[in-house]
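REQUEST FORM: STRUCTURE PREDICTION
Request ID: SP-0412
Submitted by: Lab K.M.
Chain count: 1
Length (residues): 223
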Amino acid sequence: MIAGAGLVHLMRLVSPSLPVGTFAYSQGLEWAAASGMDSEDKTRAWIFGILEHSLARLDVPVLARLRAAWETGGDAALRHWTAVLFASRETAELRAEELQTAGALARLLRDLGVTRAAPWLTHPRRTYCLLFALAGAHWGIGARELCCGYLWSWAENQILAAIKAVPLGQTAGQRMASLLAARIPELVEAGLGLGDEEIGGAAPGQIMASALHETQRTRLFRS
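STATUS: Completed
RESULT:
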């Protein structure tokens, strides 16, 4: 179990106040809300579906491999896995989000003295997961805890977006958060158990929503 400074650094990484701009993105949820996702049940199915079929099977195992590569100095593994993850972002908005948030986190880490972040500031296939993994390795956050934090941060941002876009009440958001607290550790364990050849997520509804969001007339979010 993580404790002490590592726990504090994990809380810092997943805080909505981390200045990386993730609050500006809904990853297709805004289009889904405008197209009929108008209830707590539908929103919960959307968020939990993406977690289970995409992030748990793609982001989680890749994040663990990136963290390990940062610890061992595996530059080839870093380039390989961040390229795999970047290639999985199938729309212009999702790729732009990766580049912006990863660049912001790389800049923040560099300014905090994590010098290994600097070369990735302008890398064409940088991903948020890559820099999140670097922060975890640098601050001694274990792989399981780091992956739980990553999924929680993503899901919390989706809930906050849904509260605005669906819209949902704050209590509905907290009901979903309570369910996530039980589900996320199970998804992390499943993702960490995947072999290299098993890695890959599938969320076609989200991809379609993200692509259609590019031309959505009225928008609160950048994706």
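NOTES: The chain has one domain: 26-213.
Reviewed by: T.R.
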